[in-house]
Each structure stands twice: as C-alpha cells, then as structure tokens.
Amino acid sequence: MKHIISVLVENKPGVLARIAGLFSARGYNITSLAVSETLDSETSYMTMVVEAEDERVLEQIKKQLNKLIDVITVTDFTKREHVERELILVKVNCSTKDKEKLETVLRKFLGKLIQHKENIAIIEAVGEQEQIKNLLESLKPFGIRELVRTGRLAIAST
Amino acid sequence: MTGAEILIECLRREGVKVMFGYPGGAVLPIFDKLYDADIKFILTRHEQAAAHAADGYARATGKVGVCIATSGPGATNLTTGIATAYMDSIPLVAITGQVKTFLIGNDAFQEADVTGVTRPITKHNYLVKKTEDLARIIREAFYIASTGRPGPVLIDIPVDVQQKDVEFIWPKEINIRGYKPTLFGHPGQIKKAAKLIAQAKRPIIYAGGGVISAGAHQELKALAEKIRAPVTMTLMGLGGFPGEHELSLGMLGMHGTAYANHAIMEADLIIACGARFDDRVTGRLDAFAPHAKIIHIDIDPASISKNVKVDVPIVGDAKNILGQLIEEIKKLPDTRDWLKTIEQWKRRHPLTYKDKDDGKIKPQYVIEQLYYLTKGEAIIATEVGQNQMWAAQWYRYEYPRTFISSGGLGTMGFGFPASIGAKVGNPDRQVFDIAGDGSIQMNIQELATCVCNKINVKVIILNNGYLGMVRQWQELFYKKRYSHTCLYNPDFVKLAESYGAVGIRVVKKEEVCSALEKALSIDNTVFIDIHIDPEENVFPMVPAGEAINRMIGGMA
Ligand SMILES: Cc1ncc(C[n+]2csc(CCOP(=O)(O)OP(=O)(O)O)c2C)c(N)n1
Ligand SMILES: [Mg+2]
Fold it and tell me: What is the total count of domains within chain A?
C-alpha cells in the first residue's frame, strides 16, 4: 500500500543523501519525493510516497526516519485528514486541426494548455491522483510524448 | 584560536584523557597541537586498530572513545572500526582530516568522501565547513555519541578549517531539535508490564548490551530476584547479570546453553531488556518462543517490533525503566515450578566438552583455567570465531564491561586492539585477548603499540591451525570440504619476541596453567600460543535457520 509521509528536516547539505541512503540500505520503496524549503529557510519539507507491504514496515520506515538526527518530525497522512495535490506537465502530439478536440478534453478534465507549437502541446494539470489519472487516460489518444510530475504533496487539514 | 586549538580545548572540556590514532598530511595542524596537549596519545600501527582501541576503551570504561586519522586512506582504514562500534552501539568520536574546503570534490590528493562513506555506519556525521562551527559540532558529537542509543559520530575537518583563527566560543547548551532521546518509560506501559509479570507462570528475562550501556545491571539483578525469574543474556549482554548467580542461564542463541534456549522456547513471558531479537538469538523466527507474551524495554523505538511482534513496548533508558518497574510490581508471580524445571534441565544438559586423556589441549579447558586463575576478575576481549564462543561460554562474567567482543559485525582483528583500549582505560586490571590464530594476524602489528607504550595485555592464541569457525561449518554443512580454511602460521613466539614482547608456547595440557601463571607474572605483553585440538568444535549449536531448541549437542 502507498502512504504519504511528510518529513520536516534540517535544511543542510547531506540530508537528502541520508534519507535516500536509509531507503536503499533497508530496502524500502519510495515512489515519489518532493523537497523544498519551508517558511523557515533552516528547514525543508520532504514529502514522500512510500510503499509498505504492511503496517509493520510502515512503522519501521517512520521510526528509522525519526532516528536520523536531522529529521525533526515525521507526519504520516494515512490516518490524518489532509489535502493533497500533484502537478504534472505533459507533452502530447497535437496538430492544428486537433487543437479544438484537445481543448474540449482539457476543459472536462481540468488541464491547462500552456504552449502549442510545431504540432506539440504542453499541458499543465494540478489535482488529486484520480483527476490526474483520468486526464492522462483521455490524453492517450493524442499520443503522449513525455510526462513529468512533482510527486504528491500533502498538507494537514488543521 | 585556530581550529586545531579549538579542537584540543573542546576535547579537554569533554573530559577526554586519551586518544588513539595515526597522523598524516591532513591532520598535521591537529598533531602539532597534540604535541604538547594534556591528552595521552596512543599511536597505533594501523588506523583500524585506533578505532578498535577507542572502542575497547569505551566498552571497558563507559566513556566516549576518541580516535583520529588523516584524510583518504587514513579515514577509510577507520571504517571497519566505526562499523563495528555502530553495530554494537558503542560511543565513539572519530576525527578525520579532510582536504582544504576549496579542493573538496576535485579528486584532490588523499581526498575521499568520508562523510558519504560513513553515513550508513555512524549514528551521525559532520563535515565542518567553517571553523566558527567547530566547537558546537564537537559538543553535539559527544552528546549524540553518548546519549540515547549510543553510537559512533564522525567529524571530518578540512585542513584550512583546522588552520583558521577565530574567536573560541564554547556553546553553553546543546539544542538539537531532531534529537530528544526518551529517558523514562511511559507509566501506562509500566503498569501493563507489571500486570503481565504478575500473571506469568514461566517468565524469563532476556538481557542484551543495552543493560550494560545503560548501567542497569543492579536494577536488572533486583528485578530478577524480586520476581524470581531466570535471566539469559545475549553475547553483548554477558556481564550484565552475574554469570554465577543461581538465576543465570548464561548465553542464549546459536551457541547458547541448551537450558537457556529451552527456557525461552517454553516461557510464557519474555522480558527483553536492551536486546534486539537478532537472528543469531531467535533462530527460525516463526518458531521462536511460541507461547510467550513479550515486554520489550529499549532506548531505540526502531528496535521494537522490528523482528518479533511485541505486546508491551517500553521506550526509554533501561536503568530508569527497570527502576520504575520494580516499584510498580506489587503482586509477584509464583515461579517455583518453573525454576525447578529449569534446574533439572541445567543438571541434565550442562555445557560440556569431552576431555580425553590423549594429551590434546581442549580450548574449553584453557578458558576454564583462566577463569579460576583470574577468579573471574579479568577483562576479557575476544577475536571472532570459535575462540569468541568458547570465551563466551566458559568464562563466567560477574560484572558489566568485562567481556569485550564484536557481536553485531563479528570483526576478526577486533580483540587485540580492543584489549589495548581496555587496558589503557583500566591500567590496574588484568586484560586478556582470547584470540584465534587467524584473527590475531589481522591486527598483529599492534604488538608494537603495546611494547612502545608499555601496555601490558596478555593474548591467548587458541591455535588450531584453522579458520576454525568456518572449518566447523564446512565440516557440518559442506561435507568436510575444507576450502581455504587451513592456515600456515608464523612462529608466534618468535614474532612476539621480535617486537620486544614475550612469547610462550604451550603444547601439553599440563603446561596450560603454569603458562598462564607465568604470563600473569610478566610485566610485558605476552603472546601465549596454545596449540589446541585442531578439530574441536563449538557446541551446542543451532544450525542457521533452525528453531533455537533444535540444537546439535543440546537436548533432544
Ligand atoms: C574480518 C573478517 N573476515 C572474515 C570473517 C569470517 N570469519 C568468521 S570466523 C572466521 C575464522 C576465524 O579464525 P580464527 O581467528 O583462527 O578463529 P577460530 O574460529 O579458529 O577460533 C572467519 C574467517 C570475519 N568474521 N571477519
Ligand atoms: Mg583458528
């Protein structure tokens, strides 16, 4: 099962390597990772989606993260009310005559066309996983050339 | 003050009396200050030995061990020692030189990414970029190394950081927001544990190295005596409970006593204290202690429910928690029948070995004689292999910090330098290294360190001409195909003599005691090269992957 975990860390060199090292050394799977400074430039948030076969593994991941000196707090959103989003950029094939069709799809699935030139359209979308999945599905017929995603971000509701 | 001066001043303020290390270009500014510093410096003959010696010093005294090496190869040579300390949770501060800050990342001469290399084998590490940060980092390093679950901390200091002159400011307090070890057990959990204990019929205490690092041996004894529960120890826990005590079952696990392994398999309650259910202890996990509820006391939350599911986890310092628990327990379990059963197992299936009258020297006999001769008062370091297991089985450890052995990493070459560290920390105690003929050759150069510094340790080489433990596995599990486990050894007596130490060879059983006595009377380092029965094995033994009551040479 996938879980979103948000890790507040000291904003210091080597911290990312510590976390990456922990995951590889202990054989944990990480699906996505987003890192950025918080309001306080001395700390960063690392929001990660981890895969854990059971509760025990998830607990171990959280405990091992907490053990790192540079980790300040670990928040597991599995059982916490939260809002989550992911941003994606997609490059699809789109000739001038297909443009209208594309725009209909984008209106329906909340995508935004941000560039169109030389038969290539670049689309931006922000949403929950379901929304993004649906958008990508409906873009498939155009021919997706490239896809980049930020990974999921989460913030607690209260 | 320069960075190097700040370092020395900080070490002084941290109470460091002795350091082990080896110089080189990237630590010259520090060594220049060590020249007339008020710190005893022991020059080892290999950086690995410096790390092990600092580790042995820490294990024997409870203080933080300190070692130092130059950049690149000096630092990489430390890593086996650092990993050894890490696996056994030993407080260590390792200082390494680094190339100048502006050269870092340029593949400069003797540059290695030492913080990168040691990240997975340290509790924490630092690359010091500014001299202004040095004092704070050193304070944090000592604090992190010695508190919570102890462990090694490495500080990598570039040459220019050592040279730069800045104002020295000793940080008044330490504030690491991501590091706040739990000290006391949660009262609710203590209550739950007390209740389980009161209901138990067949309780057993399973004690590990955490008891020793927390200094909780007295509390452990008080608890065991209060609830009348037997105590078994891991390799790391030996000495945490008196080996001669009527409630002691000795060591459990792969080469544990048959009665300890049976007791834990039959128990209805396991009180684990500072132990981590390592695979050498549990054997086949799904068959481990099927009837038992488990209380697990540990300073490290990540150790709890890692391998086995725990009913009552209690996170905190073992000394505090055992104290809390003793106070909380009002109703005592009735363990008389249980202790009677165990007493029978002990009588019927004691640790034994076959001592034939064929003149061959049995290693177990040697350790027994050493025990009688030293009255159990010596500090015993070990190498790794059969020698280590015989030392664990046949010497009775009455006090904490008297058995010094690489448990988690199983590092051959650890014992000799560790015994040096132990002796430096306890000049008035008798210190032995129980060695194998293979292991001793991994840091044998430290004879020079002993002789030069008049560090009087006694090394008992249980010389079987083999990498004995590996040969034992080949005998039992690989059809006696002794692939590359037979050794061609040097003359250990002459070798010791060539360094200015003393060598004694023993080939007859009658000579064992007199040789040990003679060694003790000599005020020098002595190698006692004892030619033992070459094919003697360590029993009982749980084959890897078996349930721990299915022992070869144990009880049926
Ligand atoms: C550095 C290192 N290399 C290899 C091993 C694997 N190993 C474990 S025990 C052993 C044999 C040790 O031989 P010796 O020191 O003669 O001890 P004996 O078992 O004969 O008492 C070996 C090679 C190890 N533990 N450490
Ligand atoms: Mg040997």
Answer: 2
